[in-house]
Structures are given as C-alpha cells and as structure tokens.
Amino acid sequence: MTIATGQPVPPRKPRVGRALVTLIPYLWLLVFFLAPFIIVAKMSLSTAAVAVPPYTPVFDFAEGFVGVVDGIRQFTFDNYIWLTEDALYTRAYLSSVWIALISTILTLLVAYPIAYGMARAPRAWQPALVMLVILPFWTSFLIRVYAWTGILKREGLLNQFLLWTGLIDQPLTILNTNLAVYIGIVYSYLPFMILPLYAALERQDESLLEAASDLGSTPFKAFWQVTFPLSLPGVIAGCFLVFIPVTGEFVIPDLLGGSDTLMIGRTLWSEFFNNRDWPLASAVAVILLFILVVPIVIFQNRAEKEERSLGKKPA
Amino acid sequence: MVAKAIGPIRRKFAPWNDPAARPFIEFRNVTKRFGDFTAVDHLSLGIYEREFFALLGPSGCGKTTLMRMVAGFEEPTEGSVFLDGQDLVGVPPYRRPTNMMFQSYALFPHMTVEANIAFGLKQDRMAKGEIDARVEEMLNLVKLTPFAKRKPHQLSGGQRQRVALARSLAKKPKVLLLDEPLGALDKKLREETQFELTDLQQQLGLTFVIVTHDQEEAMTVADRIAVMDRGRIVQVATPAEIYEQPNSRYVADFIGDINMIEGRVVSTGGGLLRLDAVGTGTSLEVYQDLAIEAGDTAWFAIRPEKVAISLDRPPSGEINAVEGEVWDIGYLGDVSIYHVRLPTGVTVKSTVTNRTRLVERPIGWDDKVWLSWTRDSGVVLTK
C-alpha cells in the first residue's frame, strides 16, 4: 500500500468520467453544427441541376473512394463568383446588416428601461416579471408576427386608435414598410435583450450607487458613470442575441415588410424555394455565416484577453 | 498638503465639557421608523468638530441608521439633523459635505484605484491637474502609489480598504463616516489599521464618525463612544468612562467582561456606599455617590482584572471579600481567568496576569479561594 510504505501517492490517471462529460458538448456541436455546415458547404460548391436532389455532384459512396474523389473534382466556386457579380446579393447583405443594426439599437433602447425597472422592482415581484417577459414564447412566433399585420394594416387597430385620438386624419401606411419590420423585430426579440440586461443589472451592488451619490454624483450621472458601464456585458450579450438571428431573419420581413425590404433571409428563401437553386442558396448561407462569425470570434477573443488581464490577481 | 501644522497630539480634547462649544453634528429628537419597526427612537446627540466619535451597539440597535441619516441615505421620520448649523433634512446625499467609507467598501469595480479616488473630485468639476495632484496625495497617504493602475479585484482586502478610505477622504469632507470599516480585515491588520485611523484623523483634523459592533475597536479609535440599544443611546462618554463608570448594567455588560453581584443598600452618603450581597450577606463597600436609599436593590459590578484571588483570607477582613471554589481556569498565556463559584451559585471571574514563567500555578481546580477588591475598584449600578 502506498500509504503504509510512506511513498508519495502517484498522480491519478485522467478520469474517464470527466473526459466523457466534456465530450458530450463537443459531440453535440459535431452532430448538430459541424455536420450540417459541411453538407451546406459541400452543396455550395455544387452545380444546380434538374434532378433529385437538384444539384450535382452527388457523392456516389457505392463506388467508394474513387466516387468521392470524382465528386470533389466537380466542385466549383461559380456560386460564390456569381454572388460577387450580381449587386443584388451585396445589397441584400448590406441591407440585412443595416436593418439588424438599427433594430438591435432600437431593441436595446426599449429593453434597457424595462430591464432596469425589473431589476429595481421589489425582490418578491422579480420572478413574476421575468415570467411575464418569457410569456410570449408560449404562443407560436409565426402567429404572433402574423397578428401584427392586423394591428399595422391601414384599417388595423393602430390606425383606428390614432384616428380616434385625432392625431391623424388619414390612416398611415405602416404595414409592408421597413417601419413595420422594425416594429416586428423589436417586438419579437425584446425578451432576448431584456433577459441578459436584467441579469447584469440585477446583480449590481446597490451600495455602489450610494457610494456614487455620496461622492457627489447626481442620480443621472451615477447611472452613466456606474450602472451603465457595469451593465455592458449584458448589453453586449443582448446585442449579439438580437443582431445575429435578425441578420438572417426571414419571417418578419416576409410577413410585415414591403417588396422593397431587402434582407438576405428572403433572398435565401427565394433562391432555395422559388428558383430551386440549392447550391446558390447554400453559398448565400455560407457567406452569411462568415459575415456573422468572424466579427464575433474577434470580439470574443478580445473580451477573453481582457478578462484574463483582469481576472487573475498578479502573483 | 496634509495639515502637519495641527501640532502635537491633543492630550486634552474635550469640547463636550465646554459649555460654550456647539456641536458640529447634532441630532435633535430624531426618530426613524421603517414600517412599524422603530430603528431610532427620539434620540438627541451632539458630536463635536474634530472628534473621533464611535457609535457602538449590537446589530439592529440603530447605529447604522443614525449614520446613514448624516450621509443622507435615510431621512428622519421625525426630528432633524444639523451639520455645522445647517439643517440636513431634505438635502440629497450628493449635496452633503460628508463622505462615507462603506462596510463593503463599494469600490467601483470597472475603475482603477486612481479613477476610484478621483471619482468624487470629478463630480465637482475640479481641474484635471488639481485632481491628479489630490489623487497622488491620497495614494501617498494610504501608501498605495504603486497600485494606482490596478482594479479593485486585483487588490488584497487590506488594500481595498485603503482605497475606500482614500476615496472617502479625497474630497476633504467636513465629516468622514465609517461604517464598520475594518470588519472584513483579519485581527492583526485590523489592529494596525485602527491606530492608523486615529493617526490619520489627528493629522487631517477632520471629524470622524465610526459605526462598529466591536467594542475594542471603538475603545481604540474613539474620543467618545455612544453605546446604543434598541434605537436609543444608553451612554455617551470617553472610552475610559464607559469602561470604568458604566451607567447601567447594559453598558457594563456590553463593554468588556464584568462580574455582577446583586445587593441591598445598607447606607449611603459621604462618598461611601454600603451594600449587602443578596444570598451571602457579604459586605460590599464602594467609594461612590449615588441617588439611592437604604433598602434599595442595586448591582455591584466589578471587572475581573480588579478582583484579587488568594488562597488565604485577605487581611482586609469581612469587607469586599468573598470565599468560593475554583470552578474553571482559562489560561490565555498572558493572563489566566479564574472562574470562582460562590456559595450562592454566582460565578465571579478574576483575571490574573501571569508574571512568572511558572507552568504550575499555585491555585488549581476545586481550591477554596478568597476573592477581594478595594473600595475604589467596583461600581454600583441601579438599572
């Protein structure tokens, strides 16, 4: 026995259990993210064809290695070249990013006061308030967005209300404009912004505000000097959670936007379903992924570095 | 520059005994209620300029509420608070010439040490050069200059405490409020810091008000201590007065260790009080004048270090001497505490300094011993 002989206990072998636990998320990513991505990437290098599935090459695994190599030989970058040649796609990308940017800012402006109010509400109410924020998820997203057409259309609830109050004497055209898209996005993505903001604000130490006040800072200044900077991690998380899905959003611009509302999600849809050009649609998707992933990775890296420089006490 | 011209340490600083002196901070009949809980109950108190004043009491006694009313975080329900002749009621915290050092330090985690100290100065729109100079002065004062660029979480507890102190002093407030400032430090660091605090207060010549539940801390740092109980002040006096002449059993018991013997007054007057201890009938004599009559019940209180212990009957005879049995001995190294049980069942403690290096003490468990004291060492309490 090691203990009886007084020998130092040998280092334990890496535990299998721990390895298994860390393996699960990687496996999950592999199956549900990497594999589909490879399929889409492969499709984006193919050529559209009148066939089932509507592209070539299709790997012929029956022919083994030779079949796969033969398939790879037929890969082409034509789809990507086409994307750069037709200005429609560039405009759709830029317009998507622009709409996503504006609506992220709008969502932040609406969500911040709500999250702030929730964080400052009596402790006992807070779980109920969080519940209320999540409540809309209980109804189908599609139905909720569709319901907005009833509110925003010319003879809809909003116009009726505005006419009744006398603020306007002609019904406004809101539906099928970019304004309707912004309203729809802000409405739909509000919870994704509120929750991280609330989480950041809720754990803030109230004595910090007292200290600021004690040192001569008015409540307004204290907010900008203390509360807001300390909620930045929540702001950034919320903005990512809104910006990323909104860039590729399809349902909202399709249901609420006009024919001139150019978003990459709609382009992708029409390539995929109207034109049945799966390879081009896949190329659109791959580019979209890179547009979103690259800046996020750069940002994450920076944030991590910052954390490392702050997180550890110098020895 | 820090006022070095204040001169030598004040030996006789007692504005509270000067009828012409006016209090710097004054609570006038202040009551504070939270719902149906009364935190501060019709309290009046004056704190003088340049005083180091301690509010001492158990948790929930209202001491923190009292301090927060000076800072402006709480408003009195009734009564008023004056600072330098100005009524503070209704003045928001950011307009008050007071600064507070928080129990949690409340350092801004997103700012460097420098920025934390400069925070208050920036609110006053002070010129940048001036701010820098003041920050440097403060960093020097608390010996943190090499840490100026660090953020709070990169500092040790003691360093954070210093940043908090520097930040609260940077604006040179008329009053510095310290809310349990040393609670988070370990014992040794706490003791060091206590002496540094008193030095600093003398050096800067500011009025300091400290809230603490630690009686030793209050005794070390303060010029005067207010002992509080359930929203009221029980006694306000210098540390020595509080310790040697407590005005009630509550104060006597709260500050330090004390033996309490119930007695019946036999005679008063002429500066000498005679009591008979209830149960044993031992005669107790104290040099004290007290508005009390023969036959009244009172408590004789004496600190353990003032009780002598001996195996033989003391020569003073019957007066101020009781016989008992050693029940327990607490050996603390520097002193030993003898717990002696009297025939009535009351335990009286006697602290003896261990002056020699004897490991075997002459008095042991179960020994019959005599406890005795002089007429000027105890105090008689009526409430």
Task: Please characterize this protein's 3D structure.
The complex is a heterodimer of chains A (315) and B (383). With 315 residues, chain A is mainly alpha-helical. Chain A has helices at 2-5, 16-44, 65-73, 78-85, 87-120, 126-134, 141-152, 157-165, 178-202, 206-214, 219-247, 251-256, 264-274, 278-311; strands at 47-48, 55-56. Helix content of chain A is 72%, strand content 1%. Chain A is globular. Chain B has helices at 63-71, 113-123, 128-141, 157-169, 187-204, 215-221, 239-244, 249-254; strands at residues 25-34, 37-47, 52-56, 78-83, 86-87, 98-101, 175-179, 207-212, 224-229, 232-237, 259-267, 272-277, 283-287, 297-302, 308-310, 321-331, 335-341, 347-353, 368-372, 379-381. The relative contact order of chain B is 0.11. Chain B folds into two domains: 15-249, P-loop containing nucleotide triphosphate hydrolases (Rossmann fold); 261-381, OB fold (Dihydrolipoamide Acetyltransferase, E2P). In chain B, the strands form four sheets. Chain B has a six-stranded mixed beta sheet, sandwiched between helices. The two termini of chain B are 50 Å apart. In chain B, 22% of the residues lie in helices and 32% in strands. Chain A binds chain B through residues 205, 207-208, 210-218, 221, 225-226, 229-230, 310-311, 313-314, and chain B through 71-73, 92-95, 98-100, 102, 104, 106-110, 119-120, 123-124, 151, 153-154, 167-168, 171.
